[in-house]
Amino acid sequence: MKRLDLPAYESAALYDSSVAGLADEALRAKFEENRPTVVEAFHLFDENSQTKTWCNLPRAAHGHPDAIVVGTLSKGELVALYDEGVVKSRGEPRRIYDQIKVSARDECPYCGGIGEMGEVGELGTADHFLPKAYFPTYSVMPVNLVPACQVCNKGMGASFPTDEHLQPLHPYLDEDHFFTTKWLFASVRPGDPLAVDYAANPPADWPEKDRLRVAAHFEACKLGSRYRSRVWSEISPLISQRRSSLSSLSPDQFREHLAVAANEPGLPINGWKRVLYSALVSSNWFCDEEFE
Ligand SMILES: [Zn+2]
């Protein structure tokens, strides 16, 4: 999990520029007429960001593109504003959209950068934190667009929990402690090959809501199995080094060597790699093993 800076774009400004780019004059006028109601809806989103209760925002029924969801605007029209006015725009809205996608610097904030960010030649995908299938009103809000890898994007899916305790973590808007306090842990299972198990285990003194949200996020993005399968990319070269360039180190010196990566301030505290090194430091078996 990685914190991202809030996109520096006003929601109403992106709405205006997306509407201005629409070819259909009557539709443009309709979006302009509805602007005050839409801006009010954006404020409601911002209010719920304060309390982290996005799940309570008005929800449209699945399907039903003709259903009116805000002012006189239908769900289909709002989704089309995103598709036509933002994604297919050749002007400012597309530039903003691309900026948001590259803001993660190729590291998905939901999983901490283990997933592919996009097809070859693509900048990656932008996930609607509140999916447009249920929350079309917020489909052009920059704060609702999060750069994400394909697996996390799919894992979050088109649905959103109705229970506030199960909401995934928001990389721009969520509580600081999700990003500054360790809640991801790993343990080494000795053997050949060894295995590393990851678990979400937030501090006991956190509010129950936040503890449950971490667990829900860990599940939704399938972080346990994805991190477990990733550890070999790190451990194989490490074991090779232990057999060669690091072979003269005593177990304690090897542990100190591992501790440098475990305490690397440049790595996210809940990133799979830093957590892996913490687990290796704590494993007497790994530090003592000779890997013949
Ligand atoms: Zn991801």
Summarize the structure.
The chain has 292 residues and is mostly helical.
Notes on the protein architecture:
This protein has helices spanning 11-20, 25-33, 35-51, 75-87, 92-102, 150-156, 177-180, 208-220, 223-230, 232-243, 251-262, 272-282, 284-288; strands spanning 68-70, 73-74, 125-128, 145-148, 184-189, 195-200. The chain is mainly alpha-helical. It has two domains: 11-159, no CATH class; 177-288, no CATH class. The strands form three sheets. Strands 1-2 form a two-stranded antiparallel ribbon. The protein starts with 10 loop residues before the first helix and ends with a helix. Zinc ion is lined by residues 108, 110-111, 115, 148-149, 151-152.
Largest sheet: 2 strands, antiparallel
**Ligand roster:** zinc ion
Low-confidence stretches: none
Overall radius of gyration: 22 Å
Query: What strand line-up does the widest sheet have?
Result: 1-2
Secondary structure category: mainly alpha
In total, how many beta strands? Answer: 6
Outline type: elongated
Taken in chain order, the helices and strands follow as HHHEEHHEEHHEEHHHHHH
The helical percent reads 40-55%
Number of helices: 13
Write down the domain tally: 2
Quote the average pLDDT: 93
- Percentage of residues in DSSP E strands: 5-15%
**What is the CA-CA span between the terminal residues?**
36 Å
